[in-house]
Specification:
heterodimer, A: alpha+beta, Arc Repressor Mutant, subunit A, 4-stranded antiparallel sheet, 11 strands, 21% strand, B: 89 residues, alpha+beta, 30% strand
Protein backbone atom coordinates (compact mmCIF):
# COMPACT_ATOMS: atom_id res chain seq x y z
CA UNK A 1 0.00 0.00 0.00
CA UNK A 2 2.83 2.44 0.78
CA UNK A 3 5.35 1.24 -1.82
CA UNK A 4 5.81 4.76 -3.27
CA UNK A 5 6.46 6.13 0.20
CA UNK A 6 8.99 3.40 1.01
CA UNK A 7 10.67 3.79 -2.40
CA UNK A 8 11.22 7.46 -1.63
CA UNK A 9 12.54 6.85 1.88
CA UNK A 10 14.84 4.04 0.73
CA UNK A 11 16.28 6.08 -2.14
CA UNK A 12 17.82 8.44 0.39
CA UNK A 13 18.18 6.41 3.61
CA UNK A 14 18.49 2.83 4.81
CA UNK A 15 15.14 1.68 6.24
CA UNK A 16 15.24 -1.59 8.22
CA UNK A 17 12.56 -4.29 8.10
CA UNK A 18 11.62 -3.44 11.71
CA UNK A 19 11.21 0.24 10.78
CA UNK A 20 9.08 -0.72 7.77
CA UNK A 21 6.86 -2.87 10.01
CA UNK A 22 6.61 0.06 12.43
CA UNK A 23 5.44 2.38 9.64
CA UNK A 24 2.80 -0.15 8.54
CA UNK A 25 1.57 -0.48 12.14
CA UNK A 26 1.11 3.31 12.33
CA UNK A 27 -1.24 3.45 9.33
CA UNK A 28 -4.89 4.21 10.09
CA UNK A 29 -7.99 4.87 8.03
CA UNK A 30 -7.76 4.88 4.21
CA UNK A 31 -9.84 7.61 2.55
CA UNK A 32 -10.67 8.73 -0.98
CA UNK A 33 -10.92 12.39 -1.95
CA UNK A 34 -12.66 13.76 -5.03
CA UNK A 35 -11.25 16.36 -7.44
CA UNK A 36 -10.97 19.81 -5.77
CA UNK A 37 -11.97 18.37 -2.39
CA UNK A 38 -10.36 20.07 0.61
CA UNK A 39 -8.26 17.53 2.52
CA UNK A 40 -7.12 19.81 5.35
CA UNK A 41 -8.61 23.16 6.32
CA UNK A 42 -6.27 25.82 7.66
CA UNK A 43 -6.35 26.51 11.40
CA UNK A 44 -8.26 23.30 12.18
CA UNK A 45 -6.84 21.17 14.97
CA UNK A 46 -5.47 17.95 13.47
CA UNK A 47 -4.92 14.62 15.16
CA UNK A 48 -3.43 12.82 12.15
CA UNK A 49 -1.09 13.40 9.22
CA UNK A 50 -2.10 12.37 5.69
CA UNK A 51 0.04 10.13 3.49
CA UNK A 52 -0.91 10.33 -0.19
CA UNK A 53 -1.14 6.86 -1.78
CA UNK A 54 -2.37 7.75 -5.24
CA UNK A 55 -3.20 10.96 -7.13
CA UNK A 56 -2.01 14.52 -6.62
CA UNK A 57 -2.64 17.10 -3.89
CA UNK A 58 -1.48 20.66 -3.32
CA UNK A 59 -0.75 23.10 -0.52
CA UNK A 60 -2.26 26.52 -1.17
CA UNK A 61 -3.19 29.88 0.31
CA UNK A 62 -5.86 32.29 -0.92
CA UNK A 63 -6.27 36.04 -0.82
CA UNK A 64 -9.71 37.43 0.07
CA UNK A 65 -10.25 38.19 -3.64
CA UNK A 66 -10.06 34.45 -4.34
CA UNK A 67 -6.61 34.72 -5.93
CA UNK A 68 -4.85 31.47 -5.10
CA UNK A 69 -1.18 30.58 -4.78
CA UNK A 70 -0.34 26.89 -4.83
CA UNK A 71 2.85 26.49 -2.78
CA UNK A 72 3.72 22.84 -3.43
CA UNK A 73 2.42 19.86 -5.35
CA UNK A 74 2.32 16.46 -3.70
CA UNK A 75 2.61 13.15 -5.49
CA UNK A 76 2.01 9.52 -4.51
CA UNK A 77 4.14 8.55 -1.52
CA UNK A 78 4.33 12.07 -0.02
CA UNK A 79 3.18 12.95 3.45
CA UNK A 80 1.15 16.06 2.57
CA UNK A 81 1.17 17.46 6.11
CA UNK A 82 3.80 15.73 8.18
CA UNK A 83 4.43 19.20 9.66
CA UNK A 84 0.95 19.05 11.23
CA UNK A 85 2.46 16.58 13.73
CA UNK A 86 4.21 19.51 15.39
CA UNK A 87 2.19 22.50 14.12
CA UNK A 88 -1.13 20.76 14.87
CA UNK A 89 -3.01 23.46 12.97
CA UNK A 90 -1.87 24.41 9.48
CA UNK A 91 -1.46 27.93 8.13
CA UNK A 92 -2.58 26.73 4.66
CA UNK A 93 -5.12 24.40 3.12
CA UNK A 94 -4.51 21.12 1.33
CA UNK A 95 -6.64 20.13 -1.65
CA UNK A 96 -6.94 17.05 -3.86
CA UNK A 97 -6.19 17.96 -7.49
CA UNK A 98 -7.80 14.80 -8.87
CA UNK A 99 -9.37 11.70 -7.33
CA UNK A 100 -6.92 10.63 -4.63
CA UNK A 101 -6.45 7.90 -2.14
CA UNK A 102 -4.71 8.63 1.15
CA UNK A 103 -4.06 6.98 4.47
CA UNK A 104 -4.26 8.80 7.79
CA UNK A 105 -1.45 8.33 10.29
CA UNK A 106 -2.73 9.31 13.76
CA UNK A 107 -0.36 11.67 15.56
CA UNK A 108 -0.25 9.45 18.67
CA UNK A 109 0.98 6.58 16.48
CA UNK A 110 3.54 8.90 14.83
CA UNK A 111 4.75 9.81 18.32
CA UNK A 112 5.07 6.12 19.23
CA UNK A 113 6.81 5.35 15.90
CA UNK A 114 9.36 8.13 16.25
CA UNK A 115 10.05 7.31 19.90
CA UNK A 116 10.50 3.61 19.11
CA UNK A 117 12.70 4.37 16.09
CA UNK A 118 14.60 7.66 16.65
CA UNK A 119 16.30 7.08 13.28
CA UNK A 120 12.88 7.29 11.61
CA UNK A 121 12.23 10.55 13.47
CA UNK A 122 15.33 11.97 11.74
CA UNK A 123 14.28 10.51 8.37
CA UNK A 124 10.88 12.20 8.69
CA UNK A 125 12.56 15.40 9.87
CA UNK A 126 14.61 15.20 6.66
CA UNK A 127 11.35 14.91 4.71
CA UNK A 128 9.90 18.14 6.17
CA UNK A 129 13.25 19.84 5.51
CA UNK A 130 12.97 18.65 1.91
CA UNK A 131 9.52 20.27 1.65
CA UNK A 132 11.14 23.51 2.85
CA UNK A 133 13.84 23.16 0.15
CA UNK A 134 11.10 22.81 -2.47
CA UNK A 135 9.37 25.92 -1.12
CA UNK A 136 12.65 27.87 -1.41
CA UNK A 137 13.04 26.80 -5.03
CA UNK A 138 9.46 27.93 -5.72
CA UNK A 139 10.21 31.31 -4.09
CA UNK A 140 13.17 31.64 -6.46
CA UNK A 141 10.89 30.80 -9.39
CA UNK A 142 8.03 33.08 -8.37
CA UNK A 143 10.31 35.94 -7.49
CA UNK A 144 13.03 35.79 -10.09
CA UNK A 145 12.46 33.34 -12.96
CA UNK A 146 10.82 34.42 -16.23
CA UNK A 147 7.51 32.74 -17.08
CA UNK A 148 9.35 30.42 -19.49
CA UNK A 149 12.02 29.40 -16.97
CA UNK A 150 9.43 29.08 -14.21
CA UNK A 151 7.30 26.61 -16.14
CA UNK A 152 10.39 24.73 -17.32
CA UNK A 153 11.63 24.47 -13.71
CA UNK A 154 8.31 23.07 -12.50
CA UNK A 155 8.29 20.40 -15.20
CA UNK A 156 11.93 19.49 -14.42
CA UNK A 157 11.13 19.20 -10.70
CA UNK A 158 8.06 17.05 -11.21
CA UNK A 159 9.89 14.78 -13.63
CA UNK A 160 12.59 14.03 -11.05
CA UNK A 161 10.13 13.58 -8.17
CA UNK A 162 7.81 11.35 -10.20
CA UNK A 163 10.72 9.33 -11.57
CA UNK A 164 11.78 8.48 -7.99
CA UNK A 165 8.44 6.71 -7.46
CA UNK A 166 8.47 5.14 -10.95
CA UNK A 167 5.84 7.47 -12.43
CA UNK A 168 7.91 9.36 -15.00
CA UNK A 169 10.36 8.60 -17.73
CA UNK A 170 12.95 10.79 -19.38
CA UNK A 171 10.40 11.41 -22.14
CA UNK A 172 7.54 12.57 -19.94
CA UNK A 173 4.84 11.93 -17.37
CA UNK A 174 1.15 12.33 -16.60
CA UNK A 175 0.30 15.66 -14.97
CA UNK A 176 -3.34 15.97 -13.85
CA UNK A 177 -3.33 19.79 -13.56
CA UNK A 178 -5.69 21.97 -15.57
CA UNK A 179 -4.44 25.32 -16.88
CA UNK A 180 -5.97 27.22 -13.96
CA UNK A 181 -4.13 25.07 -11.41
CA UNK A 182 -0.91 25.38 -13.41
CA UNK A 183 -1.41 29.17 -13.39
CA UNK A 184 -1.99 29.05 -9.62
CA UNK A 185 1.33 27.21 -9.17
CA UNK A 186 3.18 29.69 -11.35
CA UNK A 187 1.67 32.99 -10.17
CA UNK A 188 0.64 33.68 -13.78
CA UNK A 189 -2.65 34.17 -15.62
CA UNK A 190 -4.02 31.26 -17.67
CA UNK A 191 -3.45 33.31 -20.84
CA UNK A 192 0.20 33.77 -19.87
CA UNK A 193 0.54 30.05 -19.10
CA UNK A 194 -0.94 29.19 -22.50
CA UNK A 195 1.44 31.50 -24.30
CA UNK A 196 4.41 30.15 -22.37
CA UNK A 197 3.39 26.55 -23.15
CA UNK A 198 3.19 27.57 -26.81
CA UNK A 199 6.72 29.01 -26.56
CA UNK A 200 8.04 25.79 -24.96
CA UNK A 201 6.39 23.77 -27.72
CA UNK A 202 7.72 25.99 -30.51
CA UNK A 203 11.21 25.78 -29.03
CA UNK A 204 10.84 21.96 -29.37
CA UNK A 205 11.39 21.55 -25.62
CA UNK A 206 8.08 20.22 -24.34
CA UNK A 207 4.39 19.68 -25.10
CA UNK A 208 1.70 19.66 -22.40
CA UNK A 209 -1.58 18.37 -23.76
CA UNK A 210 -4.41 16.21 -22.40
CA UNK A 211 -2.77 16.02 -18.94
CA UNK A 212 0.44 14.59 -20.38
CA UNK A 213 3.85 16.25 -20.44
CA UNK A 214 5.97 15.13 -23.42
CA UNK A 215 9.56 16.20 -23.02
CA UNK A 216 11.27 16.59 -26.40
CA UNK A 217 14.60 17.98 -25.20
CA UNK A 218 15.40 17.40 -21.53
CA UNK A 219 18.89 19.03 -21.54
CA UNK A 220 17.39 22.07 -23.31
CA UNK A 221 14.55 22.28 -20.80
CA UNK A 222 16.94 22.01 -17.84
CA UNK A 223 19.15 24.70 -19.35
CA UNK A 224 16.25 27.18 -19.78
CA UNK A 225 15.16 26.48 -16.18
CA UNK A 226 18.73 26.58 -14.77
CA UNK A 227 17.56 23.39 -13.11
CA UNK A 228 19.88 21.87 -10.53
CA UNK A 229 18.24 18.85 -8.87
CA UNK A 230 20.45 19.19 -5.77
CA UNK A 231 17.57 20.79 -3.80
CA UNK A 232 15.55 17.58 -4.26
CA UNK A 233 18.35 15.52 -2.66
CA UNK A 234 17.55 12.76 -5.17
CA UNK A 235 20.07 10.12 -4.13
CA UNK A 236 21.59 8.24 -1.21
CA UNK A 237 22.28 10.68 1.64
CA UNK A 238 24.85 10.44 4.44
CA UNK A 239 23.38 8.15 7.14
CA UNK A 240 21.31 9.74 9.91
CA UNK A 241 22.45 7.27 12.59
CA UNK B 1 -21.17 27.38 -15.18
CA UNK B 2 -20.27 27.53 -18.85
CA UNK B 3 -17.07 26.58 -20.63
CA UNK B 4 -15.26 29.53 -22.15
CA UNK B 5 -12.08 29.57 -24.24
CA UNK B 6 -9.79 32.59 -24.41
CA UNK B 7 -7.79 32.61 -27.65
CA UNK B 8 -5.04 35.10 -28.39
CA UNK B 9 -4.17 36.38 -31.86
CA UNK B 10 -0.74 37.99 -31.70
CA UNK B 11 1.02 39.49 -34.69
CA UNK B 12 3.52 36.66 -34.41
CA UNK B 13 1.06 33.81 -34.00
CA UNK B 14 -2.06 32.29 -32.55
CA UNK B 15 -2.36 30.91 -29.02
CA UNK B 16 -5.29 28.52 -28.89
CA UNK B 17 -6.97 27.88 -25.56
CA UNK B 18 -7.79 24.23 -26.20
CA UNK B 19 -8.77 23.42 -22.64
CA UNK B 20 -10.90 26.40 -21.67
CA UNK B 21 -12.37 26.89 -18.20
CA UNK B 22 -15.75 26.61 -16.50
CA UNK B 23 -16.71 30.14 -15.54
CA UNK B 24 -19.81 31.83 -14.13
CA UNK B 25 -20.56 34.05 -17.14
CA UNK B 26 -19.16 35.96 -20.10
CA UNK B 27 -18.31 38.95 -17.89
CA UNK B 28 -16.02 36.72 -15.79
CA UNK B 29 -14.41 35.35 -18.95
CA UNK B 30 -13.91 38.89 -20.27
CA UNK B 31 -12.30 39.97 -17.00
CA UNK B 32 -9.97 37.00 -17.17
CA UNK B 33 -9.15 37.74 -20.83
CA UNK B 34 -8.30 41.37 -20.02
CA UNK B 35 -6.05 40.34 -17.10
CA UNK B 36 -4.43 37.74 -19.35
CA UNK B 37 -3.67 40.16 -22.17
CA UNK B 38 -2.29 42.74 -19.75
CA UNK B 39 -0.11 40.06 -18.08
CA UNK B 40 1.56 39.00 -21.33
CA UNK B 41 2.05 42.62 -22.39
CA UNK B 42 3.58 43.31 -18.97
CA UNK B 43 6.18 40.61 -19.55
CA UNK B 44 6.86 41.87 -23.07
CA UNK B 45 7.39 45.37 -21.71
CA UNK B 46 10.38 44.08 -19.72
CA UNK B 47 12.11 43.45 -23.05
CA UNK B 48 11.49 47.07 -23.99
CA UNK B 49 8.69 46.80 -26.57
CA UNK B 50 5.04 45.82 -26.70
CA UNK B 51 2.97 45.04 -29.77
CA UNK B 52 -0.60 46.25 -29.36
CA UNK B 53 -1.82 44.95 -32.73
CA UNK B 54 -3.16 41.67 -31.33
CA UNK B 55 -6.66 40.71 -30.22
CA UNK B 56 -8.25 38.33 -27.76
CA UNK B 57 -11.26 36.25 -28.66
CA UNK B 58 -13.65 34.54 -26.25
CA UNK B 59 -15.54 31.52 -27.59
CA UNK B 60 -17.95 29.04 -26.07
CA UNK B 61 -17.38 25.28 -25.96
CA UNK B 62 -18.66 24.92 -29.55
CA UNK B 63 -16.28 27.55 -30.90
CA UNK B 64 -18.85 30.32 -31.38
CA UNK B 65 -17.18 33.71 -30.95
CA UNK B 66 -18.82 35.60 -28.06
CA UNK B 67 -16.55 38.61 -27.71
CA UNK B 68 -13.46 40.10 -29.34
CA UNK B 69 -11.23 42.76 -27.78
CA UNK B 70 -8.26 44.52 -29.34
CA UNK B 71 -5.12 44.79 -27.22
CA UNK B 72 -4.98 48.52 -27.93
CA UNK B 73 -8.39 48.96 -26.30
CA UNK B 74 -7.24 47.21 -23.13
CA UNK B 75 -4.25 49.43 -22.40
CA UNK B 76 -4.16 53.17 -22.02
CA UNK B 77 -0.89 54.71 -23.20
CA UNK B 78 -0.38 58.24 -21.89
CA UNK B 79 2.06 60.20 -23.99
CA UNK B 80 3.08 63.82 -24.45
CA UNK B 81 5.76 66.09 -23.09
CA UNK B 82 7.27 64.85 -19.82
CA UNK B 83 7.37 67.07 -16.73
CA UNK B 84 10.93 68.08 -17.57
CA UNK B 85 9.50 69.73 -20.67
CA UNK B 86 6.63 71.44 -18.91
CA UNK B 87 6.63 75.25 -19.19
CA UNK B 88 8.49 76.78 -16.24
CA UNK B 89 6.62 79.12 -13.94
Amino acid sequence: MIKHHLAKLRLRHEISAAEEAGIYAALGEVRSFGPREIVVRAETLLTHSTLLLDGMMCRFKDLKSGERQIAELHIAGDFVDLHSFVLQRLDHEIMAIKRCQAVFVPHDRLRHLTETFPHLARVYWFSTALDAAIHREWVLSLGRRSALARLAALFCELRVRLEIVGMAERSGFVLPLNQMELAECMGLTTVHVNRTLRDLREASLLTFRNKRVEIHDLPGLEKIAEFDPFYLYPGRQPPLD
Amino acid sequence: MTRFHIHIHETLGFIADEEGAELADLATAARRAIEGVRSILAEDLLSGAIDLRGRVEITDGEGAVLQVMRFQDLVEVIQGPGDDQAPSR
